[in-house]
Amino acid sequence: MFEASVSKYSGNRIVLYPPKDYQERLRKFHGKKVKVLVVIESN
User: Is the pTM of the predicted complex or chain greater than 0.70?
Assistant: First the structure.
């Protein structure tokens, strides 16, 4: 589990930017369909 920032919107897609520590781990899933659970905390 990690916190990510929403880096941009493009059409109907949203790009999430994970922390640098997780980028290498996620690289192996490039091009694959994955399931992501998003939790939005209230301020």
Answer: no
Tokens of 6: 């929403």
AA identity, residue 41:
E
Res. 43: pLDDT tops 80: no
Q: How far apart are CA 4 and CA 31, in angstroms?
A: 19
Identify how many contiguous H helices and E strands the chain contains and give both numbers: 1, 2
Length of the chain in residues, anyone? 43
User: Please, what's the largest Cα pairwise distance for the chain?
Assistant: 34
User: H/E element holding 9?
Assistant: strand 5-10
